[in-house]
Amino acid sequence: MQFKDACWRMPKEDRMALWMKRIESVDTVLETANTGWQLNYWGSVRRQLVYQLSLLSNDKVYEK
Fold first, then answer.
1. Which pLDDT band holds residue 3 (cuts at 50, 70, 90)?
2. Residue 63 backbone dihedrals phi, psi, to 5 degrees
3. Which of 51, 63, 48, 47 is nearest to 6 (CA)?
């Protein structure tokens, strides 16, 4: 599910749980990463997901 779909179609608890599951799966990949580019790439993915999670925690989220 895309970020904008989660904002509009899911209740707050469900979208937060979905994003936490995504962050946990990225954490699993980060634990097994063994090259610099893997750590850099998946680290940036994780940062973006955490940022989106903070936005999803608000009651009203609008995407421009």
1. confident
2. -105, 135
3. 63
Enter the pTM of the model.
Answer: 0.79
Q: Both tokens of residue 55? A: 């936005």
Distances (CA, A) of 50 to 1, 20, 35, 37, 61: 16, 9, 22, 20, 15
Place of tokens 């179609």: 9
How does DSSP classify residue 48? H
Can you tell me the distance from the alpha carbon of 51 to that of 56, in angstroms, rounded to the nearest whole number?
9
Output the six-digit token pair for 16.
């937060």
Residues 6+ apart with CB under 8 A from 43: 30
Q: Mutual orientation of helices 36-56 and 12-32 as an angle, nearest 10°? A: 170
Rg (CA), the chain: 13
